[in-house]
Amino acid sequence: MKPKDAPLVYYEPLMISVHRLLLLSLLPFTLTAAETPLAFNRDIRPILSENCFSCHGFDEKSRKAKLRLDLPEEATREHKGGTPIVPGDLAKSEVWQRIISEDPDDVMPPPKSHLKLSAQDKATIKAWIQQGAKYESHWAFAAPKETPAPAAGHPIDAFISDTLKKKGLTPTATADRSTLIRRVTLDLTGLPPSAEEVQAFVASQDPEAYSKLVTRLLASPHFGERMALEWLDAARYADTNGFSIDGGRNMWLWRDWVIQSFNDNLPYDQFVLQQLAGDLLPNATDAQLIATGFQRNNMNTHEGGTIPAENLVNYNADRVKTLGEAMLGLTLACAQCHDHKFDPISQKDYFQMFAYFNSLGDAGLDGNAGNNSGPSVNKKTVLKALDLPTLPDRIAGLKLKLATPDDAALARWVGEQKALLAKRQAGLKLHPINLLKISTPNSGGGFTVEGNTFKGLGGAAYDILGETPKIAEPITGLRIVFTPNKGKPAKDAKDGKKAPVSKADFVVSAVDVTADKVAGDQVNIHKLQKFARVTASSWQPEFPAIDVRAFHPRRGWSPDLKSDEAPHLTLTFDQPITADKQAYITTQVYFAMGGKVPQQGHLFAVTGTDDGTDLPADIITLIGIPAAQRNESQRRQLWDYYAAKSKGMEPVRTDLANAEHRLKSLTDPQQTMIMAIAAKPRETFILTRGDYSQPGEKVSAGTPAKLPALPAGAPANRLGLAQWMVMPENPLTARVAVNRFWKQLFGEGLVTTAADFGFQGAYPSHPELLDNLTIEFRRSGWDVKKLLTLIVTSEAYKRSSAPTAKHQEADPSNTWLARGPRFRLPAEIIRDAALKSSGLLVPQVGGPSVNPYSPFDLWREVSHYGSTPATAQIFVQDHGEKLYRRSLYTYWKRTAPPANMVAFDAPNREVCTVTRGNTSTPLQALVTLNDTQFVEASRALGERLAKRGGNDAAKLRWAFLEVVSREPTAQELTVVTKTLARERARYAGDAARAVNVLSVGESPRDAQIPAGEHAAWMQVATLLLNLSEAVTRN
Question: Are residues 649 and 601 in the same domain?
């Protein structure tokens, strides 16, 4: 046994046993000294880094036997007892002897490390030593070198073709035109081309058609949206703060800046510099201030009990990690607690980088503010929204529509209301519910329960668990009776409303109900009941009962307490609770605007029809007057109520509200977080083991010692850091950017570890090409559009992705690019493509985030739904055009990201993500087949097909072009034609089923199309939208 931590070589280093000699002869000779010389960076460093450097590398504290294998002068000098590596001599190289040893006390890596060299690894190391054991400095830390292209022609293809010849691979032919237009349109805009665009491009005889297509796509406003997608992941952009409360924040102005920067082709060096130090530039513009939100996208916490100093360390550690992975391609975070175990980055280097951000003025704990923490500014968006000039006229038109009476529509509504009023209280019965438990989101006590009455409520929300009565008839609704409490008056309302002012007043902002045979303490255990009607005993003018159907912190129902009747709400269910579900009812009641919660409450199960109406008494009177007898004032009053409250005018009201909100968002200053130096910058210390409470040596801001020094005269702040990032001597920033853009277009970078260019990162598949592209990128003025043009016009990019048998055998991962790239589309593009093909997509660029459909209100599972004033606790679905915005604008709650995108590997954005996962699971098919957004897209596409002119075959050909950008084969056309015939027959005999399937989604359907015909085409659309090609980039 050797002494612990002994030098690598001690006892009889030159004695080689017979079994070692046998091992030498039996190792596979896949590599020999006579073959092509091995390259240390390409062939050897990855093996040593993975298996050796953690104990024999840069980190002095974890280094064993005082031996370094990452430095040639250390690895090849004589140590006590022998020499680790003797170039050209295996017998004298103690490292090799340890590798082939069978003695568990001698073998390297040691068994307890759980690392093991493969036979191929051993053969490679053996051949390298035999060839002279030549070391190289790490490729990524060396300045890019320009290499003359091996042949004339396109500068990318020359290098790739040369590699293919050496590998004995023949490239595939250029892809057909329909594939090309789909590929490049998806890559540069994130949207598929229309059927008409495909047909025009395929039919074009213009030899410049492709280059003109690329130019058009780069000029599209949707280019910036596509380019922003990856950067939002890297910058960990989200609309909430993360951690426990995960309250909302307002950062979309920064997202607008990113989109506009790409559209404007802002030079990438400025893209980096402004995000790191825009606030420190002379006479900083609004855009440059907004840009610094990049390093305010980190999570922050308001949670009581956390330690502000520790939080600040966590925030700045996240900033260093993000800077390293997103911009430098370095895992700087690995040096937070100790020297990096693989890369030449010391803990001192780490905290010198940390110091650049430790001077910020953000607080470690700023309370549950419900929005942004400082420093922040109020600025207008920098986005150039193309729809902005049209918004005033659009708003005026919608207001005119609401103000202009439609006698026919009003007459229909009056008739419906008369019929409902005639049924009031028909068969109405109230059945007391036996209350079992009352709780609040943050507390389980403080209540007393007596029968169906509860007392002692507190908080802004509570859950009520009750046992339903034993009755045979279906329960059609629920009544809640409130007893006002003499408390504080409600706070002033917003949204142009006046708050209730009586001390007894209260506002119920929402009610949720679930029912099941199994008890659930909280309402989120089971599926929510939908309400067909919500009525009340009375209400104040600005607070009708109907407002409890959708939560809003400043809206709801408030009773008119002048009435003698005990105030109550009656909630009529869309679907009655049948006997098999009649065991337990859980009800959650939310209160708004600070009004005191009523002291007592009663719950009753309802059977029969509801006992109230949501119509004010004066409107009921007007309805009773025959139309011919109403005077002009009465007609205007009735119409105004109809326009403001009826379901028939709800789409117009929604469109108006959305348009007004967009105009306000684009023209009014909005709050956004920025970086700014604190009035008293904090000092920075090396933290022992990264622990905020163990400061050690004091350090100043600086960059890693193994990389080029800061430029002369650079200030010792973030501006100096930014200048260092983009100076010509920095070997990383441009390389990392070029690789990331290549990865976006090919699915994999030339360096497959896009966030790690360090010792454990992958070696470039085409190093000379990467260096040449890097040099050309900087020479062009860091011109992103020029770089992308160069890539997408190469033959390597335009090749067919169909592999040959030899390709699959020799290069299954397409490392050498003998064929075109093929990969599944990102989650957002899958959704956007379905919306575009369906005709539902609203192509507005920029603006605040939106809340499209979400299954089962998933926010409930993670939110502190009773915590105020925290925002983003209760999911409130948007309506109208906001349902159909591009996925880039979907509200991103870190603890509950959009479910239909998470299924396709979208990250939660809690930390920097440079490369998303790429899974293939049944959940993905369940999303595209069942998610409301996709089912509605199928319905809308089916409607487009049903209304389109021509015969079925012509419609189906167009559908293929629209969804997958190509004509169907004869076999495919036959299959889909048979599918259409089968679905027509199925729905012809089941009209109710057709109506039901067409009811998914809020977009209106054309009632002129027979339901059966529409449903049949909808199923065809579903089939096409679920083809592999529809979610794949070929």
Answer: no
- Is residue 281 in some structural domain? no
What DSSP string runs through 531-547?
A: EEEEEES--BTTB-GGG
- Report residue 215 as tokens: 């130019």
Q: Is 578 in the same domain as 651? A: no
Q: How would you classify the pairing of strands 434-439 and 461-467?
A: antiparallel
Domain check: are 545 and 579 in the same one?
yes
What is Dmax (Cα atoms) for the chain?
A: 117
**Residue 790 belongs to a domain:** no
Of 136, 155, 188, which closes a domain? 136
pLDDT of residue 934: 98
Residue with tokens 């410049």: 208
| 30-44, 494-508, 586-600, 973-987: range with highest mean pLDDT | 973-987
- Contact at 8 Å (CB) between 586 and 465? yes
Please give the residue range of the domain that contains residue 996. Answer: 930-1033
**What are the two backbone dihedrals, phi and then psi, of residue 455, each rounded to the nearest 5 degrees?**
-135, 165
Residue 311 lies in a domain: no
CA–CA dist 320, 340 (Å, integer): 14
Question: What are φ and ψ of residue 1018, in 5° steps?
Answer: -60, -40
Q: Is the pTM of this model over 0.70?
A: yes
pLDDT, averaged across the chain = 89
Mean of the pLDDT values across residues 903-927?
97
> Are residues 607 and 638 located together in one domain of the fold?
no
Please give the C-alpha separations between residue 505 and each of 232, 481, 574, 616, in angstroms, as whole numbers.
45, 14, 29, 19
pLDDT band at 613 (very low <50, low <70, confident <90, very high): confident
Q: How many CB atoms lie within 10 A of CB 677?
A: 14
Question: How far apart (Å, rounded) are the C-alpha atoms in residues 466 and 523?
Answer: 11
Torsion sign over Cα 930, 934, 940, 943 = negative
Asked if 536 and 612 touch (Cβ cutoff 8 Å), the reply is yes
Mean pLDDT of 812-841: 98
Q: What domain count does the chain have?
A: 4
CB 601 within 8 A of CB 482: yes
25 located within any domain: yes
Q: What is the pLDDT of residues 873-891, one digit of tens each?
A: 888 899 999 999 999 999 9
C-alpha to C-alpha distance for 995 and 454, rounded to whole angstroms: 44
Cis peptide before 541 (omega within 30 of 0): no
Query: Tell me, what's the pLDDT at 585?
Result: 86
